[in-house]
Amino acid sequence: MRILLVDDEVELVSAMAERLNMRGVNADYVTCGKSAVEKAQECHYDVMVVDLRMPGMDGIEVMKLVKEISPDTGFVFLTGYGSEEQKTASEAAGANCYLMKPVKISLLMEKIDAAAQAACTLSE
Amino acid sequence: MPFNLRITPKFWRQFEIDPAHGSFINYRRMWWQCVIVMTSVCLFPLIITTVINAYQYQEVLKSENIAPADRLVSNTARTISFFLEERRSALDFVVRERTLEELSDGRELTRLLYRLKQVFGGFIDIGLINSRGIQVSYAGPLDLQGKNYSRQSWFHEVMIRGVHISDVFMGFRGYPHFVIAIKHDTEDGDYYIVRATIDTQVFNDLARPLNIGPGSDTFMVNGEGVLQTPSRFYGSVLQRAEWTTNMESFHTTVRELDDPEGRAIIMGSRQIDDSPFMFVYVHQTQGLLAGWLALRGKLIGFFVISTLVVIVVILGVCTYLVSAVYEADRRREAVLHKVEYTNKLASLGRLAAGVAHEINNPLAIINEKAGLLEDLIHLTPDFPKKEKAHEIVQSILGSVDRCSTITHRLLGFARHIDVNFETIYLDNLVKNVLGFLEKESHYREIEVKLEVEENLPAIESDRGQLQQVFLNILNNAFAAVEDGGKIEIHINSVGGDQVAVRIEDNGCGMPPEHMKLIFEPFFSTKGRKGTGLGLSITYGIIKKLKGSIEVDSQEGIGTTFVVTLPVKRPA
């Protein structure tokens, strides 16, 4: 399984990617929405873990653009600022999951698996 | 509640209800000002009218009695005066028309007396007295011929003045009478006197007019105050009544005074021209006074009743108006404070959310880095001091977990300002709120017990608002209990469509008069420490969520709040 982590906090995504790699997940990371879209054009990701609030392009915009390129990519959103509106908006846009930072690695893995599964089911 | 508290308007206890947030307006003073101004405006004309009316009634009553007295005295005095004048003129005529010889003749004199009696009436006898004072001839019932009058004062008066009318006296006859004597000068320089006695019965009849009432009296007195005719109240003929002579006047005078018996009277009097007599009319004013007193009683009664009615109406109107102003001011103030509070809460919410967000990112980094370290420790078989390192990382991750719980709670609390219905499990919500107070209960050793009924239904309500409600109530409970106190929370369903949360503490409790006021805005027993808004906002929220709140408290035993909420979202 190949996933891409997108967050403007490089320290966070690098550590997270490393930990996922240790758990057998092929995880790349980028620090802005634009790079994420470019990465999506380069190769196919099963799941993207995206921060909702980033400078430039926000998480939902990234998802919209990536879905145009790769509709079967699953999305897990991460945020430090949880609100009902955001959750509703992200789910309406097609996100598979919405998590609040900080998140336990086991929970993240579980949600990534679920998102990948859901995306698979959708593409079939 | 005591009766006096029930009837006292709220604004009267303004400083009791709201000691910390005293309004700039002193409603008691406003009420007093209203009452004083309105009472003055209403009662001043009433007092003036009553006084003027009383005075005018009194004057009218007086003049109604004085005018008839004046008329009666004048008319009767004129009649008496005419009576005396008539008899004097008759004698004058006799003296001028008859010669001395004719008058000296006893038979002729008797005939003359007979004529006078027939024509004028009132004559008893008639006599001729010569200049030496000897009665030369006499016609009448007694034998007075040859009687010498030269030493009597009246004889000298006639010699000087030419005419004399005597007081009433007994004389030789032994019954009251008076005399009229007229002097006639002869051509040879001598003179003689004709003297006639007048019957006082006629006089009495004249002095007692027919139209006087039972409280009235008429009589004649002479210059010394001796009664010349009998009086109804003051004695018979020739008794003394000096008090009547202190107002001798040739004009009719009427005045009010007290008689010797102390009775209030109106007395009218007039001197009879060319005579020693004065006619007196007395009217006792007791009846008059009784009428006046009755009228005055009625006036006073009317005044007192109207004053009472006016005062009651004024008190009612002033209390109603000031209460209305007070309530309107309080509502306005409460709305302003609520807006301020909501704004404050919203700012606080935004601040909390911002802080939580800013902390969550570095917290996430710490979490990942520590996680990574733990992975490395785990995956590296010969990691130095592996156990110790693992312990440290676990400690870091534990702290991250605690921090994230706090930030998540802050975000959750700050989020809900408007009503936003969602499915809520009240036990979780109360646990969440208790989380805020966990440290305090721990430090103060307060025992907090939560009992939840099994299969408690979830309710549809607003999470943030309910958090505020329970935080307020629990904060109050924490403030009420002593260190080591006890707070019990029971949550159970009521009739399937409601859920009740019962929060019971064993704190200081409150007196009954406070129980009615605790949901009032600005009522606080915490002095400057409390806003007095907590429970009023709580009450407002519960009303908005269509629930209800009840309080029961006993001083020194504790307080119980019961919040009941509908299971279904209200329509």
Automatic annotation (TrEMBL), chain A:
The keyword Oxidoreductase is annotated on this UniProt entry: no
InterPro entries hit by this protein: Bact_response_regulator (IPR050595), CheY-like_superfamily (IPR011006), Sig_transdc_resp-reg_receiver (IPR001789)
One record GO biological process: phosphorelay signal transduction system
Protein name (database record): Response regulator receiver domain-containing protein
Phosphoprotein is among the record's keywords: yes
Keywords associated with the record: Phosphoprotein, Two-component regulatory system
Superkingdom as given in the UniProt entry: Bacteria
Residues where 4-aspartylphosphate is found: D51
Pfam families: Response_reg (PF00072)
Transmembrane intervals: none
Domain Response regulatory stretches: 2-116
PROSITE patterns in alphabetical order: RESPONSE_REGULATORY (PS50110)
From TrEMBL, chain B:
Catalysed transformations (reactions): ATP + protein L-histidine = ADP + protein N-phospho-L-histidine
Entry's EC annotation: 2.7.13.3
Alphabetically ordered keywords of this record: ATP-binding, Kinase, Membrane, Nucleotide-binding, Phosphoprotein, Transferase, Transmembrane, Transmembrane helix, Two-component regulatory system
Top enzyme class: transferase
PROSITE patterns hit by this protein: HIS_KIN (PS50109)
Annotated TM spans: 30-55, 300-322
Boundaries of every Histidine kinase domain copy: 354-569
Cross-referenced InterPro entries: HATPase_C_sf, HATPase_dom, His_kinase_dom, HisK_dim/P_dom, HisK_dim/P_sf, Sig_transdc_His_kin-like_C
CDD domains named among the record's database cross-references: HisKA
Domain of life: Bacteria
Keyword Transmembrane annotated: yes
MF term (GO), any: ATP binding
Protein name from the UniProt record: histidine kinase
Protein's organism: Desulfatibacillum alkenivorans DSM 16219
Lineage of the species this protein comes from: Bacteria, Pseudomonadati, Thermodesulfobacteriota, Desulfobacteria, Desulfobacterales
